[in-house]
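Record type: monomer structure entry
Structure origin: computed from sequence
Chain ID: A
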Amino acid sequence: MGIELVVIAVAAFVTAVMSAVAGFGGGLVLLVVLVQFLDPVEAVPVHGAIQIASNASRARLLREHIDRRIVAHHAVLLIPGGIVGLAIADRLPREIGRALIGVFALILGWRPSLITPRLDRPVPPRWFLWVGGFQGVINMPLGATGPLISPFFRSAVEGRHAMVATFATSQVVGHVVKVAIFGGAGFAFGDFWAVILAGAAAVTAGSFVGTRILGRVSEAQFGWIFRIVLTVTALRLVIGLLA
């Protein structure tokens, strides 16, 4: 897995920079890249392990901005939601799983209003009980849920630094739960140690670079890069099912 490992490491670095600047989105692109080389049932837990490093490094660098009330509420229902989600993921055929991730990515990249909520008023912390439960369910079959739940964090948290820090911390908890549930179900993370190690190192470096330019680069400047990369990689997954 020589060239594939290089591609994954580069993608991990770039997507971590993207997430640090925009607050979300990079993890979804990285998952779509991983699914080019791994089965969905392998890519989702490996992605979760890498994203722990990505989000933890970002949360650490911006720790003074974390809203801990939101993080605590968000964590409550992640485990029961994840158990339900694992049962769904186990029943998805491999190619259907790939195509679902691709379609999910394309919708979130181009027409997020179809599946993301429009929030006209600030969201109270107690709402995050249900946000966490919902994320737990869909995290297992779809893997990267950041763009789907980010509107709740944007509504609840004031300031770009606080939003990035709080969202990253909540995502750490979400990915830890996902990895723990997959591990408890027998997934052999040791078989993918090289991918996880390379990805974790790359996302940590990307988070460092991204947080240094946070506030100097607009989300719009990353928006088109995000959509183009996401579209090219996601279309490969969808076309693979039709071929």
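Annotation 1: Residues 2-242 form one domain.
Annotation 2: The mean pLDDT is 83.
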